[in-house]
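Appendix B: a complete holo record

For completeness, this appendix reproduces one full record from the ligand-bound portion of the collection. The bound molecule is zinc ion. The inputs are the chain sequence and the ligand SMILES; the output is the full three-dimensional arrangement of the complex, encoded as structure tokens. No fields have been trimmed.
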Amino acid sequence: MISTHRNIGLGGYVIRNVLVHEMIHYYIAYNKIEDNEDHGVEFMKLAEALNRKYGLSITKKIDASSFKRNEKASKIFWFFTKLFGC
Ligand SMILES: [Zn+2]
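The structure of the chain with zinc ion bound, as generated:
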């Protein structure tokens, strides 16, 4: 179980959405799925399926507003953007 959100002051729901967003990018790249853009049709098919199944709210863009209010969270968000480019 990931409990990082308690240490950086973010809700688990936010962290979960960010991690799943990035995992979709990984899944698409690992399986060599062709998409029309970074957050294209295939990305959104997976995101919408996971949103329905697990009650998530994965979107094309990560809402960074909650990260910018918190220095530790901001550093983690920077790491994600450098690692995955989104
Ligand atoms: Zn992305």
